[in-house]
């Protein structure tokens, strides 16, 4: 079938402003939006630039706005968004070229929450023990692939880039609720800042955008609860 | 630049302590309380007194009972604090220019104290003529 | 254009690269160069598990793991290296857990383990639970955990830097030349030791589980620098890729009890591998599927069979195999709880690659002569621990064990020697000129067209079953494609984020690797492991129990050399499952 793809283009070396490119593509039933983008790049306009790698929703490279919603281009089936598909770069992060955005602010927020296991006790000779129930507590937030779909779908983040963002909170959650971690107090303190977890207005865009179906707003709420109860 | 962002966020945590935490907690608690108090207030006004019956004399009579004054005082404090804090959130989110932020938040704070004081004063000192 | 100096440089930020960087950075100044943001690396796609004889669920010993790996390699694996792999696997998995990796747990709280193809107890008696797993996202967890540790330890990253060439002079590696994708600038990285951990090259084929970015960069650079590649003819086709898409459905499905069925609903693996059946080694299963399809028993006569997990129940699938359930639902609109999944063999893993010793040092001949300061680990390397065929869960072990050993060795080496001066000052200019030629070329050939033709000939002639005729046809076609590659033009002429140019560079790498693969396959006149010749269907230990080394000479022609297989504990035997 034939579909029309409208892509927001921008070449920093040539364009003063972004402009809309329109492309007609012949696709198969099982094709994804990523396949259409590749087709355009390889056979119609070689200057089209976008990040991608695994092609099946696990690396998080190709997060972008498709018909207004943050999605991974390799997971969106064309037949679900045909006949006219609008593709734009993520919001809230500076656009470098076409669909490529500057991920540095996103990764800086990630690093700010100390996303590594904190445990200075000498480890046992074998694995540290953890019950299946304890493992279950933070299972959801281990799924995060750092694709930035959540943070860049959050209106609070659009309005204020200093907000640490849902992804960073998810990463912090993964450790705060891991029974082997001893850094909960430190991380909660970092997230206690006005631009930490309290900037969340419970809008839920993040939960909708997450391609891994992590219940992000719920995780953020659990962090808020942990903060409240640690002060009561 | 972005490493300093992290440092600034951490620094903010030290400075502001738990204000945002308690503000958030207050919104949740007062939200629930307000739901109950407002519904009860509406119920009382509509079904017990009857809206078409409300006039100065009815209010004066109601306020002869100190319990009603206390009830209305709490309703005022919770509603206006909840509302004003909400307005503070909106200013925080949407107003980026630092000059305007400070100005608007100051005006809000003044308005907050002004209205709370006026309202409390009325509730406490009202005497039926 | 800038000049950087480090003790150690790691190229590639997957499991092997990150592990090496973590270890090297403890005692030497280290930088990681990666063409992707590290968490995008393909290690994250690995699903099933990491194999180690922890013995948490059933009795297990590293000697059994060693035997399974050697047999799985069809006796081509170097047994001293395999012993290192299996011994250190236990310690390295525990180390990963200490770093915070969230493994699934047994009721007692220990790391959970499950069955996996080719892993047995007591030297082949019956399947054993050796694969340590985190749902079906084990690779993702390993990648994330290692990246977290690198951030914690302030490892220096140069993200989105594509390495274009090594600096090798007089048998010594002195650094590399890299292209900064964001700006188009070319930089020289001067170092005492460089490790290549750039991954595989599944994109040589049209149906593959590999990412678009897996284009054999490190291996091709070595080939072009006169460093031989080892065992290139051995490329694994994973039996269960989603039909047409190539996306992997983990062996873990069969580990949990899923079975393969043909058109007649028959569990055909019972015929091909009576003991292990669907959990036989991957090359055995891929060939079985191909044969079934060839004999007309593919589903609806088409080129796929069914992977049936319907009898596992919703609970097991949602809890233990959520990823593949998601893939199948998203891409095929099927529910694995109630419907079987259409699968076909998909190009998956390179057993061959840059030859190394057990400390990840690159070696160039049968005498183990090293290239001083050059290391390789992960899929791009050939130690050789996988021989002619790799067992599932052994790649993740390979990454962390040899990544660790390489990281340690390269840091120790860097601390012993002085930085060697670079003699050839024009290297950067030559690399720049090559890029200029690609950029300013006015030829009519397009990267996409050449790549598609290469992928087709490779899929048709250099995949699960090969013939001398087909391989020769592939060699000729690839030569033609390389000639046409000289006449490509790139549409994007910009400096910033020129992906068009990078794809052209990557195609060059793919063509070199494809050629080396086809030539090696043509050269080896026997069938062993993943390399199946219909004209030479038997394994020939007398003539072919040796590793192939293919080297490109100055004039562009290839020559072959051989390296003996190291045999210590287990004599080669017939391979039956």
Count all strands of chain C and give the number: 24
Structural class of chain A: alpha+beta
Per DSSP, the total helix count of chain C is 16
Bin the strand percentage of chain C: 15-25%
The number of helical segments of chain A is: 9
Radius of gyration of chain A: 20 Å
Oligomeric form of this entry? heterotrimer
Q: Order of strands across the widest beta sheet of chain A?
A: 2-1-5-3-4
Poorly predicted ranges of chain C: none
The largest β sheet of chain C comes out as: 8 strands, mixed
Helix content of chain A: 25-40%
What's the CATH architecture name of the largest domain in chain A?
A: Orthogonal Bundle
SS class of chain C:
alpha/beta
The first-to-last residue Cα distance of chain A is 61 Å
Beta-strand residue percentage of chain A? 5-15%
Overview in brief:
The complex is a heterotrimer of chains A (232), B (129) and C (577). Chain A is of the alpha+beta class.
Structural commentary:
The complex is a heterotrimer of chains A (232), B (129) and C (577). In chain A, 32% of the residues lie in helices and 15% in strands. Chain A has 232 residues and is α+β, with helices and mostly antiparallel strands. Chain A folds into two domains: 2-101, Roll (Ubiquitin-like (UB roll)), CATH 3.10.20.30; 104-228, Orthogonal Bundle (Fumarate Reductase Iron-sulfur Protein, Chain B, domain 2). The radius of gyration of chain A is 20 Å and the shape is elongated. The N and C termini of chain A lie far apart (61 Å). The model of chain A has no long low-confidence stretch (mean pLDDT 95). Chain B is mostly helical. Chain B has a single domain, classed as 3 helical TM bundles of succinate and fumarate reductases (Up-down Bundle). In chain B, helix 2 (19-49) crosses helix 4 and helix 4 packs antiparallel against helix 5 (98-125). Chain C is an alpha/beta fold. Chain C has 16 helices and 24 strands. In chain C, strands 1, 2, 8, 9, 10, 11, 18 and 19 form an eight-stranded mixed β-sheet that branches.
